[in-house]
Amino acid sequence: MDLPVMPPVKPMLAKPVASIPPDMQYEAKWDGFRAVVFRDGAEVELGSRTGRPLTRYFPELVEALRERLPHRCVVDGEIVVAREGHLDFDALTERIHPADSRVRMLAQKTPASFVVFDLLALADASLLDVPLSDRRALLERELSGVTPPVHLAPATTDRAVAEQWFQRYEGAGLDGVIAKPLSLPYRPDQRVMFKIKHERTADVVVAGYRFHKSGPVVGSLLLGLYDDRGALQHVGVSAAFPMKRRAELVEELEPLRMEDAAGHPWAAWSDEVAHETARLPGAPSRWSGKKDLSWVPLRPERVAEVAYDHMENGVRFRHTVRLRRWRPDRTPESCTYEQLDEPVRYDLAEILGSPD
């Protein structure tokens, strides 16, 4: 491979802001695996956000990108899996598997798509120092008429349209809007774009915690919601605390600490089979590897208000949530899924403009 921009390249990043800024290019924020794709004739390589190769996990995309991208180019985009008109991040994570036979089986069962939103190089020219507005014009020219599973990401400079996207696209599994200055050159691994994400609040049960890697202070709080059967389901964690607060939390939660998990709603957490029918902390995962997943059980009596941006398949928080305050006025039993906002369903095909 001999391109003007060579792998590995860490993609350009975004920093969070509270509202959509004016006078920029706006795109949907895709919920998938960020990837920079390098194509030099028959050679295709997919690099992850960290620069590590993703190529072997998406053989169906390698072939599609070889057929649909310009002969020699470098593009930035997002690998996604769409099911029933909606992005499915859980199905996407299953694609990262060490067994080649399983990778190829999943390539047939849950094929991925690639959404392109930037152009870093074309033929013999590096475009890293070219303004975004010019890169976008070239990208639209080169991908005019491109067919699935490769898509050109919709973009607009109309802030009112971006506001509509922010409200509507969440129902298709997207989680916000990205704003990019029109004069922006491509700056790998720098937070020079802006992301605007949905933020909501929910009351949750604090049912345990994990210790911080530095010592006997709280690393993360384990959070739960009751389902319609009255079972407490593990829905995520809150982990962003100053070190002083981590120590304070240990003291605050000490009266609720249990000697062991016997009698706790998540007592079966160490049983791999139990995870098939309930959401429990410590689920076996190829992402966790040999990481210590043990936790300190608490009597599920403390309620907290947390801020979250997105629910994954309506059953768990997609990202780490932010602790806002304790809610002594709320009972644990009132912390149910029913309190959560349900985004209006929106067909992904209407965003990408063709069936997926």
TrEMBL record:
Pfam families: DNA_ligase_A_C, DNA_ligase_A_M. Residues 105-227 form the ATP-dependent DNA ligase family profile domain. Keywords: Ligase. Its EC number is 6.5.1.1. This is DNA ligase (ATP). It comes from Streptomyces caeni. Belongs to the ATP-dependent DNA ligase family. Gene3D superfamilies: DNA ligase/mRNA capping enzyme, Nucleic acid-binding proteins. It comes from the Bacteria. It catalyses: ATP + (deoxyribonucleotide)n-3'-hydroxyl + 5'-phospho-(deoxyribonucleotide)m = (deoxyribonucleotide)n+m + AMP + diphosphate.
